[in-house]
Fold this sequence. Notes:
The complex is a heterodimer of chains A (115) and B (113).
Chain A: E1 5-7, E2 10-13, E3 19-24, E4 31-37, E5 44-50, E6 53-57, E7 64-68, E8 74-78, E9 87-94, E10 105-106, E11 110-114
Parallel strand pairs in A: 2-11
Antiparallel strand pairs in A: 1-3, 3-8, 4-5, 4-9, 5-6, 7-8, 9-10, 9-11
Chain B: E1 2-5, E2 9-13, E3 18-26, E4 32-37, E5 44-49, E6 53-57, E7 60-65, E8 70-75, E9 84-91, E10 101-103, E11 107-112
Parallel strand pairs in B: 2-11
Antiparallel strand pairs in B: 1-3, 3-8, 4-5, 4-9, 6-7, 7-8, 9-10, 9-11
Amino acid sequence: AAGVIQSPRHLIKEKRETATLKCYPIPRHDTVYWYQQGPGQDPQFLISFYEKMQSDKGSIPDRFSAQQFSDYHSELNMSSLELGDSALYFCASSLGLGGGTDTQYFGPGTRLTVL
Amino acid sequence: GQNIDQPTEMTATEGAIVQINCTYQTSGFNGLFWYQQHAGEAPTFLSYNVLDGLEEKGRFSSFLSRSKGYSYLLLKELQMKDSASYLCAVRGDSGAGSYQLTFGKGTKLSVIP
């Protein structure tokens, strides 16, 4: 079965640079969630989109922005990168808003390293 | 807000049974999930409970008591490949139309021969 695809899998950037992470949800899934997981930490919710509209916002810094496109893929744009942004960034997708028995399925993650 | 507690680490023997507990205090509740995560990999969905009781899925079972804010994940016939972190996650109802997951810190399970 098709899974969530994220690209790139690994990304190395310098401080103050920008980065764009991409997420392709499972086919027919219309909701995308972004999570950040620091070393030894649990995943922290950043932001989500349903039907191309932002549906919820968590602890996402103002330096980050995201959007969902007409084909339901999503991009997380990160500017003025800081050392503390080094983390695993997971995208998850679900069918609908994730209520009921709808489950969020996670992609393999993008490991961002800021030097 | 959400507060989710689970043990940091557990060790169990291959072939045995282990129970990982999770307690939660949440402002909204719309289901509890268990995920398995190997180091550096994505969380993999294991089970989902929204009503009280036991859900069984092969070697894995999960229990929920909403009145007690308590869940456990039961792993039977442990295998070495079960060594991983197990994340308890609560789905809230933000009221904004999205159901974000709030994760516990995870329980690192080590299975020994």
